[in-house]
Amino acid sequence: MVGGGRWRHSCAMSSSRVAAPAPVIRCEGLSKRFGATLAVDGLDLEVGPGQVYGFLGPNGAGKTTTIRMLLGLVAPSGGRAWVEGRELPDASVAAMVGSMIEEPAFYPWMTGRANLELFGAISRRADRATVAEALGWAGADSFADRKVKTYSQGMRQRIGLADALMGRPRLLVLDEPTNGLDPAGIREFRELLRGFAADGGTVFVSSHLLAEVEHVCDRAAVIVRGRLVEEGPVATLGAAGRKVRVEVLPPDLTAAQDALARWLVAVDGTTLLVGHGSGREVNAALVGAGVVAESIEVVKPSLEERFLSLTNGSAPAPDAAGSDGGGGVRAAGR
């Protein structure tokens, strides 16, 4: 299973980091153009330490291209970006970040363990003990000694996650990491990411599974056609779509409609759905008109509904290889 216990980093968070945390990822006007296509357009972004940060957008929005730029796989066309305080491009950043981009690529005739030991030896970031530890954390140790060509998609994802975890990075950058995982695996993966962040690590994760983003992420950014359209705590993204459901007694229905006429109101029997986000203000308007409601409930749309509103109805989907202009680059590990 994913995450056999709490992930422990080798260094603790300092008091200065708690008092005034510097962003782990920062982008200022970051842009990328492929010919006539502007894949990422002036992106401004900050990701603080200890966060699980969601990066959302419809297919072709520029998510994967942004991630490739942060990892040094693609050079930006404009703007600036920093990772762990180091301005890109900086070759040392790759050694500080654990990453899994698109489908992990491995040698199919080798076992998962042998693949990771080879990658660790080449990069000088992991020995056999470190590989074994990472496999345990990713829930991949039970099948690590089988050849990769026999793996399911979910198994490949777990081996890719183990590769990202080797060397105890402080930052994980993951692109659609739960592809191929069953519901139990997704839940275990969620617990691993939350534990990683609780121990001072930072996770930057692109995903089209909006329910999982809602469960695991502290903050999120939504990009559409390469531009940032909203950023903030997951619970408040698209909060303007909130409504207030009011239930009144039949004799009070007309008075309630009059009292709430300043807002858009839909009526179904004795239930009024008010196009306003504040239950307090709706209640005050009713009380001012002498109406006592049977119940008042703030109705918050799901993250999926808010996402669709922010993206003008674009269906959430992962960036396909090259769909945002980045070509078919694939990377596993760091």
Q: What tags apply to this protein structure?
A:
single chain, 334 residues, alpha/beta, Rossmann fold, 2 domains, 4-stranded antiparallel beta sheet, 25% strand, elongated
CATH-wise, what's the superfamily of the largest domain? P-loop containing nucleotide triphosphate hydrolases
- The share of residues in extended strands comes to 15-25%
Q: How large is the count of helical segments? A: 10
- Give the strand tally: 15
**Any idea of the CATH topology of the largest domain?**
Rossmann fold
Number of spatially distinct domains: 2
User: Which percent bin holds the helix content?
Assistant: 25-40%
Rg computed from alpha carbons, rounded to a whole number of angstroms: 23 Å
Order of helices and strands: HEEEHEEEHHHEHEHEEEHEEHEHE
User: Could you name the CATH class of the largest domain?
Assistant: Alpha Beta
For the residues shown, what is the average pLDDT? 81
Spatial gap, N to C terminus: 23 Å
Q: What is the 3D shape?
A: elongated
Strand order of the largest sheet: 10-9-3-8-7-6-15
- Runs with pLDDT <50, length 5+? 10-18, 315-334
Structural class: alpha/beta
CATH architecture of the largest domain: 3-Layer(aba) Sandwich
Specify the biggest β-sheet: 7 strands, mixed
Protein model, in words:
This protein is of the alpha/beta class and 334 residues long. The protein has 2 domains: 15-234, 3-Layer(aba) Sandwich (Rossmann fold), CATH 3.40.50.300; 243-299, Alpha-Beta Plaits, CATH 3.30.70.100. Helices cover 29% and strands 25% of the residues. β9 and β10 form a beta hairpin. α3 (112-123) crosses α4, α3 (112-123) runs parallel beside α5 and α4 crosses α5 (153-165). The longest helix has 16 residues, at 183-198. The two termini are 23 Å apart. The relative contact order is 0.19. Mean pLDDT is 81; it is low at 10-18 and 315-334.
